[in-house]
């Protein structure tokens, strides 16, 4: 009886001591990092109240490539000094030392390759503990262009509207809205390309069939969690009212004789000018011969038609 009482007593004391002398690495489970900026992986060492003035002996920050693997040491502290850290990794506390329980990791210039799980192991003079935390890298999308192929909008032939995003991360989506709010995304096709640094570029093609063009087409880019990051509205160049379509046979009947008459007048003017300038052409200035060939092309503005020839 007495012996079992003693056992219970010892067990209770051990439990209380364990509770009061724990060492725990507490990390924020999810940290968000922005591409090209600094990222913070927040971890602090918590100790029980019976642990007085703890000292950290070892810190090992590792990047895990899979849940089972050993990991790749990116920042280490042991025997009172820092190991040579991997480029761009440092303690978040600027003058961190073994008395500082904030062992947060700072990544200087966040890249897509930094995305993933990290393990933080801490050994103190009163115990040790290891935690895992995750960095989610994000790069914001924006729309770089919305344009047509073929280049010129021709209502009489099929064409394609193309929307391109700038690079972002993780994989987002492009959507099309026609006029005010008609979702036409289903009619489009999206292509994703990944650059060497891991960022995604999105391209969406929306085919337009002849005679079925609307006034406004909006391309919207959503990030991986479905939030809008950018949009661009493409307005169809409207055919000007009152101005006849230059392609229609009616106008060409009127335009053709006008062009002929116009050319004749310009030709005459040129001939006149050439005649008047003949005496002053081939003027030698700055060691160069400047000669006038105004009529080489009819649409060359008269004042710009001076051609420079180097003197022999
Ligand atoms: C740890 O240090 C970093 C950098 O100084 C700071 O941003 C963070 O808030 C600190 N965390 C805690 C829990 O004190
Ligand atoms: C952080 O990154 C910037 C730009 O990438 C670089 O100029 C700077 O030297 C880096 N700082 C440290 C402490 O590595
Ligand atoms: C998407 O954007 C929202 C709002 O800006 C942001 O809160 C969220 O973290 C972003 N998600 C991703 C995966 O980029």
What is the radius of gyration? 37 Å
| Ligands present | 2-acetamido-2-deoxy-beta-D-glucopyranose
Which CATH top level class of the largest domain fits?
Mainly Beta
Extended strand count: 22
| Structural shape | elongated
H/E series, N to C?
HEEEEEEEEEEEEEEEEEEEHEEE
Protein name: CD276 antigen homolog
Organism: Neolamprologus brichardi
Main location: membrane
Keywords: Cell membrane, Disulfide bond, Glycoprotein, Immunoglobulin domain, Membrane, Receptor, Signal, Transmembrane, Transmembrane helix
If you had to describe this structure to a student in words, what would you say it looks like?
By secondary structure, this protein is α+β, with helices and mostly antiparallel strands. It is built from 2 helices and 22 strands. The chain has helices spanning 2-20, 249-277; strands at 23-27, 30-34, 39-41, 43-47, 56-64, 72-78, 81-82, 89-91, 105-107, 116-124, 127-138, 143-149, 159-165, 173-178, 182-183, 189-194, 200-208, 216-222, 228-235, 283-285, 288-292, 306-310. Strand 14 (173-178) and strand 15 form a beta hairpin. The N and C termini lie far apart (125 Å). The chain binds 2-acetamido-2-deoxy-beta-D-glucopyranose (NAG) (3 copies). One 2-acetamido-2-deoxy-beta-D-glucopyranose (NAG) is lined by residues 138, 170, 223-225, 227. InterPro entries: BTN3A2-like_Ig-C, Ig-like_dom, Ig-like_dom_sf, Ig-like_fold, Ig_sub, Ig_V-set, T-cell_Activation_Regulation. It holds the Pfam family V-set.
């Amino acid at each position: 009886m007495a012996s079992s009482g003693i056992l219970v007593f010892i067990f209770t004391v051990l439990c209380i001591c364990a509770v009061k002398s724990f060492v725990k690495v507490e990390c924020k489970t999810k940290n968000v990092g922005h591409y090209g900026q600094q990222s913070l992986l927040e971890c602090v060492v918590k100790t029980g109240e019976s642990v007085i003035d703890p000292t950290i002996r070892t810190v090992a920050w590792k990047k895990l490539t899979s849940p089972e693997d050993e990991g790749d040491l990116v920042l280490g502290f042991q025997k009172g000094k820092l190991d040579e850290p991997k480029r761009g990794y440092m303690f978040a506390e600027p003058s961190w030392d073994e008395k500082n329980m904030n062992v947060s990791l700072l990544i200087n210039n966040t890249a897509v390759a930094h995305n993933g799980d990290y393990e933080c192991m801490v050994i103190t003079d009163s115990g040790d503990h290891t935690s895992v935390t995750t960095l989610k890298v994000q790069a914001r999308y924006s729309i770089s262009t919305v344009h047509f192929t073929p280049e010129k909008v021709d209502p009489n032939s099929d064409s394609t509207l193309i929307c391109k995003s700038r690079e972002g991360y993780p994989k987002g989506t492009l959507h099309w809205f026609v006029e005010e709010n008609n979702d036409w995304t289903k009619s489009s096709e999206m292509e994703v390309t990944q650059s060497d640094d891991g960022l995604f570029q999105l391209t969406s093609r929306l085919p337009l069939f002849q005679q079925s063009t609307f006034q406004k087409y909006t391309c919207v880019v959503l990030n991986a969690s479905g939030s809008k990051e950018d949009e661009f509205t493409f307005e169809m160049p409207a055919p000007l009212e009152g101005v006849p379509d230059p392609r229609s046979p009616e106008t060409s009947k009127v335009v053709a004789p006008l062009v002929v008459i116009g050319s004749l007048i310009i030709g005459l003017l040129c001939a006149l000018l050439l005649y008047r300038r003949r005496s002053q052409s081939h003027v030698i200035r700055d060691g160069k011969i400047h000669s006038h060939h105004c009529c080489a092309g009819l649409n060359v503005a008269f004042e710009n038609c001076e051609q420079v020839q180097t003197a022999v």
